[in-house]
Amino acid sequence: MATRYDRAITVFSPDGHLFQVEYAQEAVKKGSTAVGIRGLDIVVLGVEKKSVAKLQEERTVRKICALDDHVCMAFAGLTADARIVINRARVECQSHKLTVEDPVTVEYITRYIATLKQRYTQSNGRRPFGISALIVGFDDDGSPRLYQTDPSGTYHSWKANAIGRNAKAVREFLEKNYKEEAIATDRETIKLAVRALLEVVQSGGKNIELAIIRRNQPLQIFSAKDIESQVAEIEKEKEESEKKKKKSI
Amino acid sequence: IQLLHGTTTLAFKFQHGVVVAVDSRASAGNYIDTLEANKVIEINPYLLGTMAGSAADCQHWERLLAKHCRLYALRNKERISVSAASKLLANMLGEYRGMGLSVGSMICGWDKKGPGLYYVDDNGTRLSGPMFSTGCGNTYAYGVLDSGYRPDLTVEEAYALARRAIAQATHRDAYSGGVVNMYHMKEDGWIKVERTDVSDVIHKSLEARQ
Fold first, then answer.
1. How far away is chain A from the Cα of B88, in angstroms, using its nearest Cα?
2. What is the pLDDT along chain B (210 residues), one digit of tens a residue?
3. Contact, A107 vs A113, CB < 8 A?
4. B3 belongs to a structural domain
5. Closest chain A residue by Cα to residue B91
6. Which residues of B touch A92 (CB under 8 A)?
7. Which of A39, A175, B30, B186 has the fewest beta carbons closer than 10 A?
8. Is the entire prediction scored with pTM above 0.80?
């Protein structure tokens, strides 16, 4: 049955599915994990970095991109599709500034990206974008925001979320560990993001990319060294809490 | 085509907000088409637009602006800023540059950034400023405004200044006249202050001088 309704995505299947959209969501599930956390004065994005081939030149960040001074996004899914979406979003950020004389709110640019994605689920001869995006930033009034979009064109606001491979495991970790104390300071929020990624990333720190935005400050991408020191701190804390447990037994 | 911009409109910012005053004469050459035209469009409780130039052009484009402002508020769940509203109008008019539109408008409002006043015209000009007067009576109005304006005017002084400026302009400009329609833009929205016949204003000021 499914094979007959794959072709033109403008067509519903008899049981109400848009199969192309669902297949796009499958493509997203194959992409490397990305996690986003909304703190009080900081927003954090972390992505799983695939190991680089020997002859390939290592570029620091490909998956976390600034859309404007106060907004950035990470994605999971088809990198090439993401490039198009990111470019359109960047242009829209500037267009908005030109016509409205105000920087975009995170919700506005998320809505723009989601509307763009939806348009591609309802056009002839086009396929949906195969990416989910995590969009973070601060609005003009200083409030931190985290939004997630998916290939169908829906978007929601989140306190913390993960997309891509193993997203479920990371999200369960976040549901357990996202508490007031965990996001009380910027440092704790960053640590929570790293801990969440370490749950699913093999070989630790060198396969993680990390970026933060603090209120009224531009995107800051962590160097490999800084990430290593975060991971080392977390490992140390883990050891100490294990020791304590052993002692109390 | 040199259209006569038969009007006097003015607006100025002061410590208590923005005062907007317009005359009400619509002329077609030497014929007074309308004695009491409405030259202020109430876009929303926090935005006003004045009209000078071709009545048809002003009405059409400013009503279209009102539609866009409403759509903006529905889509973005917050009221449009004065700078964005004036930019929308300026861009709309700019597309028709050189095609004979005649619009000289002031967009006044109060938004997150405080009181706002922009002058927008058919050339695509868009200026922010503390005081503007448009229409062919504007030179007379500027004379009164410039000699009486202070940013720290009281509300009553501001009303008197605006009223006097329009009245004196209608006194000398053949294409302005009728009544003074005055609005006051405050933090919680605009109020319509008054509708005063200009001849009353002139006679009162003459009597006061006797």
1. 7
2. 344 468 999 999 999 999 999 999 988 888 888 888 899 999 999 999 999 988 889 999 999 999 999 999 999 999 999 999 999 999 999 999 999 999 999 999 999 999 999 999 999 899 999 999 999 999 999 999 999 999 999 999 999 999 999 999 999 999 999 999 999 999 999 999 999 999 999 999 999 988
3. no
4. no
5. A99
6. none
7. B30
8. yes
- Whether B13 maps to a domain, the answer reads yes
Element (H, E) at A220: strand A220-221
Q: In this complex, which of B84, B88, B91 lies closest to A102 when CB atoms are compared?
A: B84
Q: Among this protein's residues, is B7 annotated catalytic?
A: yes
**CATH number of the CATH domain containing A94:** 3.60.20.10
Q: Do A101 and B91 touch (CB under 8 A)?
A: no
Chain A: closest CA distance from residue B57 (Å): 22
Instruction: Give me the residue label for tokens 């484009």.
Output: B61
Based on the structure, what is the number of domains in chain A? 1
Q: Among all residues of chain A, which has the CA nearest to that of B89? A: A99
Pairing, β B9-14 against β B31-34: unpaired
Q: In this structure, is residue A231 part of a structural domain?
A: yes
Q: Which residues of A touch B94 (CB under 8 A)?
A: none
Domain that holds residue A225: 19-48+58-242
> Based on the structure, what is the number of domains in chain B?
1
**Neighbouring-strand partners of residue A64:** A74
Q: Does residue B1 belong to any structural domain of this protein?
A: no
ipTM score of complex: 0.81
Which residue does chain A place closest to B92, by CA atoms? A99
A243: its two tokens: 């020791």
Six token digits for residue A166: 């193993």
Rounded CA gap, A229 and B170, in Å? Answer: 76
